[in-house]
Amino acid sequence: MTAADRGAVAGRWRPVIAVAVTAVVMASLWFGHAPPRSAAAYARQAAQTVGYLRSQTQTARLWVDAVATAATTHQAASIALEEVEADATATAGRFAGWDPPPGADPVRDTVTGLGEEVTRTLGALRIAAHRDQWAACRDWRSHCPISLSGWAPLRTASPRRPGHEAQTRHAVRLHARHPLGHRRLHRHR
Amino acid sequence: MLFGFTLGTLSAIGGFIDIGDLVADALVGARFGLRLAWVTVLAVIGIMCYAEMSARIALKTRRPAFDLARSRLGPRYALGGLIGSFLVTALLVMAELSGIALALQLASGVHYLLWVPIAAVLVFIVIWTLPFEATERIYGLLGLAMLVFVVAVWHLNPDWSRMWASATTVAPTSGESWPAYLFFAITLIGAQMTPYEMFFFSSGAIESRWRPKDLTEMRVNVIVGFPLGGLLAIAIQAVAFLVFFDAGIQVEHISQTVLPVALALGKVGLAIALVGVFAATFGATLETLFSTGYDLAQYFGWAYGEVQPPARATRFTTTITALLLLSTALALTTLNPITVTIYAVVFSSVLLPFAFLPVLLVGNDKRVMGELANGRLSNTVGTITLLLSIVVSAAAIPLLILTKAGAS
Amino acid sequence: MTDHESLRFTLLDQQLVDADDRPVGRVDDVLLELPDDGGPPKVVAVLTGAQALGERMGGLTGDVMASVASRMRSGEHRGEPVAIPASLIGDHADLVKLTVALDDLPQAAGLERWLAHHLVEGLPGAGDARD
C-alpha cells in the first residue's frame, strides 16, 4: 500500500476515532464528576465524605502527637496541619455543593454540620501551630469532633448488600462531640 | 573494579524510588496494607529483565534501545512511541520537580510553590555543569537515605504474622472493591516499571563507554540493585500500613508518606527521610529529562549526551531546557502534584508494551546481537512480561474511568 | 552499492555520522535515479532532516512535520529537503559513515548550528569538555 493509499484509509477512520474518543471522554466526565442523584449514591458519598474528614482529623492528631513527643520539627508539623485543613475544607465544600435527593436532607445537615466543625477545629489548630502554641494543640485532642475510639473502618454502602434500602436511609448516623455538648460522632457501618 | 561494582549497584538501589513510588506505595499501604506487594515483586522481575536486555543491546551495538526502535520498526511506530512518552514524561517531570519542592517545604516550612523555581534552577545548574556519571552516583548514593523506611518498619514493632498474612492475600481489603484494587495494582506497575528507567540504563551504558567485557558488572548492578530498590518500595507500603491502615487514614500528601518514619525514629528519622525524598526526586527529575532528550535526539539522529559539551549538542540541550521550563510552568499552575503523579504513572503504564516490544525484538536478533542474543530465560521472562504489560495497558484507562482515579 | 542490498535494512532510518564520528542525522529518505538504459535504480543522494522524513511518512503528522521544517530553512534551499550526495557515503555496514566532516556539509544540521550560534554559545560553561 502506498503512502497515499494509507492516508486515504486512515482518513476514512479519522472521524470515527475522533467521535469515539470524544464519547469516552464525555462519558467519563459525566460519570466521574456528576453529583450523586439517587439516595443510595448520595448516602455513599456522605459516607465517603465522613471517611475523608475522619482521615484528615486522624492525620492532624498524629502530627500533634508527634510534636508532643518531639518526633518531628515544628516546620514539618505546621505544613502538615495546613495541608489537612485545606483538604478538610475542600472535602466539606464539595459535599455541601451537592443537592440532596428528596428525603436525604437530614443526612446533608449532619454531614455539613460535621464538616463545618472539622474545618473550624483544624483551622484553629493551624493558627495555633503558626503561633507556636503547641500546648494548645495538645488540648485540642479532648475536643476533637470525631471520636477516636471504637473506629470502624470506612465501609461504603454497597448496592449488592442485603437490606440496602434500610441501610442507606440511615447510612450515616452521626453524633458529634462538641466542646459545649456531648454528642459523640462515629461512622455507622 | 570492586569499587565500581559497589558504586553502580548502590546507585541503582537509591535510584529506584521516585515520586511515583513515594505517592503510590504510601497510598496503597494505607488502603490495602501489603496486599499489593506481589505487584512490586512482579514489577521488579519485569524491569530487571528489560533493563538487562536493553543494556546488553547497548553493550553490543553501542546504540541505545530507542535508537534501534526506529531502525527496526520504522519511523511511524517510533514517532508514536516518542510522542506518547514525551507527553507522559512532561507530566512526570512536573511531578518530580514538585516532589523536590515538597521535600524542601517540609524541611523549611516555606510554601512549596516558592521552592519550585529554585528547584528548577538547581536542576538546570546540575545539568549544565556536572558530568553525567558524577550526578548519577551522587543522587544514587544519597537516595540510599530511603533505607530509613526499612529501619522504621523494624522500630514500629510490627505484628509480623499479620504483615505476612496481608502480603500473601491477593484480594482487596473488606470495604474496597476489585476495580479499585486492580486500579492501584496498575498504578504500582506504572510507578515501578518505568520505560524511562530502561532507556536511561541503556543510554547510561553508552555514556559510560561500557563494552561486552563489562557484561558481568552490568548484570550485578541489575540483580542486586533492582530487587533492593523493590524492597525500599515495599518498606514504604509497610510503614504506611502499620501507621495508617487501622486509623482509616488516606494518604494525600508527601508529608503523610514520611510521617510514619517520624513517629518511629523521631526528628533524625524524619530528616533522613526528607534527604531521601529530595535525592530520589532530584535524581528522577534528571533521569526523566535526559531520557526524553535522548529519545528525541536518537529519533532524529542528533548529537546528544552529557559527555559532549552543550555547544556540541545544542538541539539536545535546548530540548531538555525547554522541557524543564514547560514542567516548571505546569507546576506553578498549582496543579495538585499528587493527582498529576497518579495520572502520569497510569498513562505510563499504557505505554509499557510499546516500549518493551522493540527491545525484545532486537534482543532476539542474532544478526545484530551475535553471541549476546537473548537466552531462554530472557526470552521467557521477557515474553511473559510483555504479555502482562499488554493486559495492564488495555485495562489502565477503563479502570481509571471506572474508579474515578481510585476515588471509589 | 550492489543491487542485492536491502535499502530498508541497511540504509533507511540508519544513523548518519561524519568522518569524525559526529552525528549528522538519520537517513530519512533516499533519492533514487532510474537510469535510461533500464537498469536497477541508483542511489543518487540520501535525504536527511525533518522535512525529508515528513514527506516520506505522509499523512497528517508527516505533512505538519514537513511544513514546519521547510519554514525553518533559509536561503536558496528553502523548501527542499537536505540532500547529501551518495558520493560522500563511505562505509555503511553499521552506521552510515560519511567521508567528510560536518563542517563541510553546510546544508545539514542547520538547527544545531543556529542554536549553537544564537543560544548556547553565549552561556557560560558552554564549551567545557566534560568527562
Our measurement of the CA-to-CA distance between the termini of chain C, rounded to an integer number of angstroms, reads 38 Å
Percent range of helical residues of chain B: over 70%
Query: How many domain regions of chain C?
Result: 1
Helical/strand content category of chain C: alpha+beta
Question: Compute the gyration radius of chain C: what is it?
Answer: 16 Å
Structural commentary:
The complex is a heterotrimer of chains A (189), B (408) and C (131). Chain A is an all-alpha fold and 189 residues long. Chain A folds into two domains: 34 residues; 131 residues, no CATH class. Chain A is 65% helix and 0% strand. Chain A contains six helices and no strands. The C terminus of chain A is likely disordered. With 408 residues, chain B is mainly alpha-helical. Chain B has a single domain, classed as Amino acid/polyamine transporter I (Up-down Bundle). Chain B has 16 helices and no strands. Chain B is globular and about 60 Å long. A three-stranded mixed sheet of chain C has the order 2-1-6, with no helix packed on it. A three-stranded antiparallel sheet of chain C has the order 3-4-5. Chain C has one domain: SH3 type barrels (Roll). Helix content of chain C is 28%, strand content 19%. Chain C is built from four helices and six strands; from the N terminus they run H-E-E-E-E-H-H-E-E-H. The chains are: A mainly alpha (189), B mainly alpha (408), C alpha+beta (131).
Please supply descriptive tags for the structure shown above.
heterotrimer; A: mainly alpha; disordered C terminus; C: 131 residues; alpha+beta; SH3 type barrels; three-stranded mixed beta sheet; 4 helices
